[in-house]
Structures are given as C-alpha cells and as structure tokens.
Design a protein that fits this description.
Layout (H helix, E strand, L loop, with lengths): L1 E5 L8 H7 L4 E4 L6 H8 L4 E3 L15 E6 L2 E6 L14 E3 L7 E5 L2 E5 L13 E8 L2 E8 L13 H16 L4 H8 L3 H13 L5 H9 L1
Parallel strand pairs: 1-2, 2-3, 5-6, 6-8
Antiparallel strand pairs: 1-9, 4-5, 7-8, 9-10
Helix pairs in contact: 3-4, 3-5, 3-6, 4-5
Length: 218
C-alpha cells in the first residue's frame, strides 16, 4: 500500500505532485487546502482524507478539524495545527499535521509525528515537500519528496529590503503581459522567484505587496 501525505497546498496542486498522487492508494491531507477546486481535484485522484486548516473557509465546513482513521493495521490521527491536539493518542501510531510548512519526521513516546511540509506556493527559499509512505508485510517506510525549484549555481534571492520594489515591478510587468522569462531578464532575478511571486499574486485575490511578502515569510 502506498500513501501520499501532503499538506498546505493553498490552492496549488503542482503537476509533479499530482503525478505522484496518481500512483498512491490513499491520500492524507493535513489541511489548508484553501479552495474547493483543489479539494475536488485531489479527491478525484484517489481515496483521500482531509482535515480543515485555518485557510479553509466556509466551503470547508463539512471537513473535520481532526480525524482518526485506520489503514493497513495502523492508526492515523490527523490535525492541521499540532498545538490543537485534543485527542487521547494512546492508540495512535502516526500523527499527521501541517500548518508550519516545515518538514518533520520524529518519534516520541512510541508515536511517529509526520509533517510533510508544504507542496503548495513556495515561501522564499523554504523547501517544497511532501511524503510517500509504503506499507507492506507489517512494516512501513517513509520517503521525503523534495520538489523545490533549484536556483542556478551562485544565484541568490535579493535582500529583503529590495523585495518591495521588486515585487511591484514584477506585478507591473505581468500586467503588461510580459512572460516569466521576460520578467526574469528585465529584473535580473531568477525565474523561480518570479514564478513564486506571481503564483501568490494570482491565487490570492486583492493581495498587496505587504501581503505577498508576509506569505513568502510564512
């Protein structure tokens, strides 16, 4: 049995993530799906279990904030924010959570805590990750999948104090119907940074420069 463990997609289901999900028997999502469309797309790939995150609004009222399921003899407890655990974990093998966008695989008191990180919009240089769990013959293995865009050798993000002006220029160039390649060359920055900024800008209606910066820092 193969299980995909993902979280914090924030309305972005990347093609490379979707391809991996197609090979899985089940999908566990740790919350912050952020849109009904993404929820429905994931549900159409394989049997999926979700918990509701802080970014999941009115459309997600029927999604539970915590969930316990059993798969192949193992008990999984799911919650978006690990600080919100309100459940007796005495019979739990795995705790699945998200929120921090930081990958974690650790064991405490016989329970394995798994945060797949975020495989949605990237925040600055934060990795883009998720997990693949394989269960067979009473044992399991966990693979970390890192699909982070790679900067060219020696390339760096601009200093944060320059980001405000850069974001304004990138948005202006996009509104002028320039391509990502053109914007990258005009502003002398890496293509992956342009893509990151435009992804946040286009998926968060009404967001301003400060909002984009804040989301990149999360």
């Amino acid at each position: 049995m193969k299980i995909a463990i993902i979280s914090d997609t924030h309305s972005l289901l990347r093609p490379e993530v979707e391809e991996k999900l197609k090979d899985c028997d089940y999908i566990l999502h740790g919350g912050d799906i952020a849109s009904k469309e993404t929820f429905e797309r994931i549900n159409a790939i394989a049997p999926a279990y979700f918990v509701r995150g802080n970014a999941d609004k009115d459309w997600a009222e029927d999604i539970p904030k915590e969930l316990e399921i059993e798969l192949s003899g193992y008990n999984f407890y799911m919650v978006h924010n690990i600080k919100h655990i309100r459940h007796d974990l005495s019979d739990v093998d795995f705790v699945i959570y998200g929120h921090s966008h930081k990958y974690e695989n650790r064991e405490k008191d016989g329970i394995t805590y798994l945060n797949p990180g975020s495989c949605g919009p990237r925040r600055f240089t934060q990795p883009v990750t998720f997990m693949l769990m394989t269960i067979e013959k009473g044992s399991y293995s966990i693979e970390k999948v890192d699909i982070s865009p790679v900067l060219k050798k020696g390339a760096k993000y601009p200093p944060e104090k320059e980001m405000d002006k850069l974001i304004r220029n990138i948005i202006k160039d996009m509104d002028s119907n320039r391509t990502v390649d053109e914007i990258s060359k005009l502003n002398r920055v890496e293509k992956v940074l342009v893509e990151e900024i435009l992804q946040i800008y286009t998926t968060h209606s009404g967001i301003d420069v400060d909002g984009i910066l804040n989301r990149m820092k999360e």
